[in-house]
């Protein structure tokens, strides 16, 4: 590796020629993820916890190593080559995210720590600036806590009211009831694109259209969506969209807030400090232009560059074929569940991603997860930071197996072989 190589060179060195997409080959893809090839408790790892965090391809790991080995410097305003190289890679990653989401401008892409911080940014910067007593914020019953608590906090501070879109027994948002909640007092609609607990996909474009008819702005928690298909924020016409890098095969601690430029420009900053200022004096401060107004302090430079590399990796694959493969994984899992005594599926929406939440009769989810781990099978257990929907179903939580494109049909089979062994233990 040469010092003259940029992180951008490293990020794209493994990619095929422009406009040439690799045919999807799950075995070849798995070879790109070093962590998958290990033993857990003497068994081959079966990693089915992708909704919590995804694993990282070698190309992302290489970019991180390159940055810290050769380019490590603070971005912007540097008077030396390391800073210039770091800044170029950092801002190029922002442009990659812009293209990835089909945002109109790179200035509409704000770096954050993750989806949670992005939603808090909107709630506290936009929400507190527009909400007054009697106004209404709408969320759904299937939201992650990070798309509930910030709005509760802001409603308490402003006197606004939080309204909830019901979800039916299958885990589907009740669209007609959502429409009935909308009125002239509705200022913000904040909904998840894909439920992390159920896998349900919400009709964001239709939700946004109805919200805009009453003048409300739409915030979307996209943490669980971006890994499964191409998201086009201009087509959805949402006003804000948030996601996390670690659920998109990128590092932890980096996230994105997309916002329409006119809204971001009208919002006050989230935090004060370096980078977000234009001029500071004791008489007053003027703020920096977008996107830097919302990026106080030294950013997660390596994380942003790693996120750009993850997008490069996804762009090198056939995403339609990936989605088809994930659909096959879910279909096989649901078929095996239907033939497995004692399993109850939680969340069976007609439109859902490759997430299967379930209960095993007579067993606590935590016990099931621990016994599967003894067989090398990694799943998630608990309420999945979605306690309200668990309360609706009157359950303490679920076992959640979440699949992505590097999982195999053999791993789905291994999950159910493992479940049969769990039954014998319990």
Question: How does this model look, in words?
Answer:
The protein has helices at about 5-10, 25-30, 60-70, 80-100, 115-130, 150-160, 175-180, 205-215, 235, 260-265, 300-315, 320-340, 365-375, 385-395, 410-425; strands at about 40, 45, 45, 110, 135-140, 160-165, 185-190, 215-220, 240-245, 255-260, 275-280, 285, 345, 355-360, 375-380, 380, 400. Residues about 10-20 have low confidence and may be disordered. It is α/β, with parallel strands linked by helices and about 425 residues long. About 40% of the residues lie in helices and about 15% in strands. The longest helix is centred in the first third of the chain and has 21 residues, at about 80-100. The strands form 5 sheets. The protein has a 7-stranded mixed β-sheet, with helices on both faces. Strands 13-14-17-16 form a 4-stranded antiparallel β-sheet, with helices on one face. Strands 1-2 form a two-stranded antiparallel sheet. Helix 8 (about 205-215) links the parallel strand 7 and strand 8.
